[in-house]
Amino acid sequence: MSSIKKKIVFLGGSSVGKSSILLRFTNNQFQEGQEPNVGASFLTKELSIENLKYKLQIWDTAGQERYSSMAPMYYRSASGAIIVYDITDSESFITAKKWVKELQQMGPIDVKMAIVGNKVDLSNDRQVSIEEVKEYAESSGALFFETSAKTGKNVYELFRQLLTHLPKT
Length: 169
Ligand code: GTP
Prior knowledge:
Order of helices and strands: EHEEHEHEHEH
Number of helices: 5
Helix content: 25-40%
Strand order of the largest sheet: 2-3-1-4-5-6
Number of strands: 6
Distance between the termini: 13 Å
InterPro entries: EF_Hand_1_Ca_BS, P-loop_NTPase, Small_GTP-bd, Small_GTPase
Strand content: 25-35%
Bound molecules: guanosine-5'-triphosphate
Low-confidence stretches: none
Protein name: Ras-related protein rab-5c
Mean pLDDT: 95
Structural class: alpha/beta
Pfam family, one: Ras
Keywords: Nucleotide-binding
Shape: globular
Organism: Anaeramoeba flamelloides
C-alpha cells in the first residue's frame, strides 16, 4: 500500500513549544530548556491512522520575529498548518491570530489549520481561556486543541485529527 504524503508546517511565536510538540510526537521525548530554532528545521514521520499509511514532511519554523518573513517558504504548498500559542502567555495568542490571518490571506487555499494552546500542564498560570479560542477557531474554520509537550497530553490526538481532516490523496 502506498502512503499518503502530506506537508505540515508549524507556526507561532517564540518559545510557545513548537519544537517540543514535534519532539514529543516524533520521539516521545521532552527537554526542559529546548533551544530556540534558528531558521527552520525539517523532518519526516511515517504513521498509520485508521488503516491509512501517511508519510509526513513537517517543517518547524522559528518563532522569533526576525524570522517571520521566511515563513511563506515553509507554508507554501502545506496541507496542514499547526499554529501554536502558550496558554500562559496572552501575547502569544495575539501572535497566533496574526498567523491565522496571514495563512487565510496568503496561504494555500485549502490549507487546514489547527490552533494549539500548548503548556496546559501550567494551567495554574493560564492567561488565555478555552472559550475565547474555541469561538475564534470555529469562526476561522480551524481545529482547536490544548496540548502539553511536557506530559504528552493531546499531542498524538492533534496529529490524528488534523490528518483525518485532510484529503486522502
Ligand atoms: P522557537 O524555536 O523560538 O520558535 O520556540 P518553540 O516554539 O519551538 O519552543 P520550544 O519547543 O523551544 O520550547 C520553549 C520552552 O518551553 C522550552 O524551555 C521548553 O522546554 C518549554 N516547553 C515546551 N512545551 C512545554 C509544555 O508543554 N509545558 C512546559 N511546562 N514547558 C514547555
